[in-house]
Amino acid sequence: MMPLRHFAAVALIVAANSLVVSSAFAADPVFPPGARVGMTPLVGLNKARTFTGFETEDQSVKVLVTDLPAEAYGEVANAFKANPGGTGGIKPESIETAAGLAYYTAENARDGATNVRRYSMILPGPTFSGYVAVQVPENAAKIYTDDAVRQMFASAVIRNEVPVEEQLGLLPFKMSELSSFKNVRTLAPGAALILSDGDEKTGFEVAPFMIIGLIGSTAASPDDRGRFAQQIATTIPGVRDGRITMSEPVRIDGQPGYETRIDAISGKANTPVTIVQWVRFGSQTSMRIIGSSPRDDWSKAFPRFRAVRDGIHPRG
């Protein structure tokens, strides 16, 4: 089942460490902060400190939890039906969960010099596919067995929405204004947020939406800010036939920034949109704030975008 093997590329890289834990289960399903997929973790697995999922105290066993596009589940289901015997000696299995029928694989692999057992599961969500990847080093395999991992997979559950306060609490900055956007969702827990009036079913571009997050780079010098802002404006996803109509320096929360506006076409419906991008420059990173609106709604949407921008402040 090649699609699942591709998905396993996001599986976790771990080092071999000793492990002594019980194989019993905790009581109730647990959602890692910001995640829409939860499960009942094996005892000894706690919420991870540096990624979305679970890990043992010594970080030798890790469970990654994330979302994939909605169509990913269908691709895997079709591959399973077309080739139930699997490929490369890896046979896919199906398993019933509270979210519906899921598919998973298990295979032996190596992480550097360490022998590991890797598991990948995909399950259906209402507007996304849930994905879980597990990696168990050889010295923990007698405790975290195939049967134990399968039991953990069977406990998987989906929640349609993550509480807004939980999502905002993960961000490296504070937000005091959401401008009455109907939907709030983290694109990557603790890294980027989308505010929208549309959703994954209708498409975001047919209504105003914003994307806010930090990027790990900044302008090399004050004279380079305009070039930097215009260059990253060309990387806004889903935008076609873009034309920069304005780009100029601004102050944002007392810091140097740049405002760039673009007229473009976006989405499957070829919606004419106007986009504003604000970049707030820091010493090592930059904050990037994108607001996109159908062109006919721009005059109403722009004040909302600006209010959200002005309500973003450093945490602590």
Largest sheet: 7 strands, antiparallel
Strand order of the largest sheet: 2-3-4-8-7-6-5
What structural class results from the helix and strand content? alpha+beta
Query: How far is the first residue's CA from the last residue's CA?
Result: 47 Å
Q: What order do the SSEs take from the amino end to the carboxyl end, as H and E?
A: HEEEEHEEEEHEHEEEEHEEEEHE
Topology:
Layout: H1 2-7, E1 37-38, E2 46-47, E3 53-55, E4 62-68, H2 70-82, E5 93-97, E6 100-111, E7 114-124, E8 129-137, H3 146-154, E9 157-158, H4 164-170, E10 173-175, E11 183-188, E12 192-196, E13 209-215, H5 225-233, E14 239-252, E15 255-266, E16 271-281, E17 286-294, H6 298-310, E18 312-314
Antiparallel strand pairs: 1-9, 2-3, 3-4, 4-8, 5-6, 6-7, 7-8, 10-18, 11-12, 12-13, 13-17, 14-15, 15-16, 16-17
